[in-house]
Amino acid sequence: MEIHSDFQQKPKIMTNPKSNSSAYWKKNLQTLIFLLAIWFVVSFGFGILLVEPLNNIKVGGYPLGFWFAQQGSIYTFIVVIFIYVVRMNKLDREFDVNED
Amino acid sequence: MDILTWTYLLVGLSFALYIGIAIWTRAGSTKEFYVAGGGVSPLANGMATAADWMSAASFISMAGLISFAGYDGSVYLMGWTGGYVLLALLLAPYLRKFGKFTVPDFVGDRYYSNKARVVAVICALFISFTYVAGQMRGVGIVFSRYLEVPIEWGVVIGMCIVFFYAVLGGMKGITYTQVAQYCVLIFAYMVPAIFISMQLTGNPVPQLGLGGSLEDGVPLLEKLDGVLADLGFTEYTSGRKGMGDMLMITLALMVGTAGLPHVIVRFFTVPKVKDARLSAGYALVFIAILYTTAPAVAAFGIYNAINSTSEKELAALPAWVETWQKTNLIQIDDKNGDGKVQYLPDPKANELTIDKDIMVLASPEIAELPNWVVGLVAAGAMAAALSTAAGLLLVISTSVSRDLFKTFKPDISEKKELRIARFSAAGAVILAGYFGVNPPGFVAEVVAFAFGLAAASFFPVIILGIFSTRINKEGAITGMIVGLVFTIAYISYFKFIAPDLNNASHWWFGISPEGIGSVGMLLNFASCYFVSKITPPPPAHVQDLIQEIRIPRGAGAAQDH
């Protein structure tokens, strides 16, 4: 049994890229959770759940809740994707998993 | 020149352009046919994705849908854009790294099972066919309305055009045609929107005009709320749908968007993982231009329509009302005989019926724009319908030639596979055309169907396939079947078997058939998880595959087996 488990342990040189990629994956998941939270809040939060209280605030001719539901959430979605692009490009280089 | 001449001219020119591009980009290999050789730049791919995505329904009907739904229409706006966030963050980069051609490819390899692959192919075919039938009908309607030919002829002409560039060019031809189609459709959508926004609010940007003020200084939305409330309708900026239903429909549309095979496959065409992320961002920018303009067109349209008809003398109605009465898209019936038009919520007293498509179709006339703009809108609507139909047909033909044929006969030559792909594309065009001429009578319902099915079948197993190493083939197959069967059963029950029960008091937990895909998705997730728990984990080579797709390095060009 012991010999077997020793045998399964990989040499150090192999574990390095492995831990590297799991650290990368962890950072990736953190980024995703943060960005998906924004995605959720602007659409389901401001656009639907909180739409009535927000509609009491007027921005120009827009009730704010209505603005989030028909305009603001869409603009935020675009920003979320581009933050993701920039952040992931940086992470790719940092953890040396980039393509070029 | 009159409207019809302009329409023939502009539509003809745009068709010549598409066919020219198709000949120039003829596909020579299966790789070019399926994923355009994997060499499309992220910007061009973003534009093509946007054209692929925005159908005749987005172009012609969405604004009108929002006109009458007001705030409730937000489910479409958020649902059909928010899905791209899920696509960019959770699917596109990993599927690009995976590096094959189709969604069933991924399901089959990740779940190491041809059974899973076949279930995925069936899901893909089902979703694509329900969706494409509606598109061909849309093509026919656009043709018949603008070119004054019967709908059947419209479908046949549309089929010939799509046939030409989908069969000949494959994904390569389709992609570059879609880039051109995007330019045509967005220009056609924006020109009338900008002019109407200027006329009503003095602001040339429709997105700002919607929040702008009318000539008398009252904000447009406030005025519209007031006008509708006076007539007895719900205020424009408040909703009638229950909050739970709003949440469920929005979720189903978002997740459905991210699970549609013809959208996912677009991200296989870019060279790198990096490009797949960026391309999803560009796609959403191009989509958002139309999707943030649509609510403005919606509000301008309903305001203009009420303002120029309600309580007006029958003899003094504007010219566009008369023009569109001929097509039955506007119907006026002076029931109380007072010589004026009353627009009221009570169907017995209401004298004005407006088809939702009017808001976009009649917009050039409402804004008193020159005749060539009408021709332009026709070309735009055609571009929207054709680009979506072509994208779907490609998914169907790929599913048949690659996922079915090649799985069971892996040794066929590339040349033969390409020929089978072309034949199945041709077959799909003819079948879709048949449905376009003889619509199954539920064209309006197919959208709910396609999105619900995509949400309930693909999305969970792809997500779990990437983010969990424990989910196995037993779980995935069970999940897809449970999600699909539940969603089909619920929608069919309320749409076809017992349509008279289709109201909030009979729905489960107040969830409409449009939103039930969300529940199907949750059931899929749950059953997939539990079945995987009690069955053995995936083998080592699959674990390695998952680790491999999680990091970008090493993504070569899209590979054949």
From TrEMBL, chain A:
Keyword Cell wall biogenesis/degradation: no
Nucleotide-binding recorded as keyword: no
Entry keywords, A to Z: Membrane, Transmembrane, Transmembrane helix
Record field: transmembrane: 32-52, 64-86
Domain Sodium symporter small subunit: 22-98
Pfam family, one: DUF4212
Protein name: Putative solute:sodium symporter small subunit
Organism: Algoriphagus aquaeductus
TrEMBL record, chain B:
Pfam families: SSF
Keywords associated with the record: Cell membrane, Membrane, Transmembrane, Transmembrane helix, Transport
Location (main, coarse): membrane
GO molecular function: transmembrane transporter activity
Localization per Swiss-Prot or TrEMBL: Membrane
Chain segments annotated as transmembrane: 6-24, 77-95, 116-133, 153-170, 182-200, 246-268, 280-303, 372-397, 418-436, 442-464, 476-494, 506-531
A single cellular component GO annotation: plasma membrane
Keyword Isomerase: no
Domain of life per record: Bacteria
Family from the record: Belongs to the sodium:solute symporter (SSF) (TC 2.A.21) family.
The name this protein goes by in its record: Cation/acetate symporter
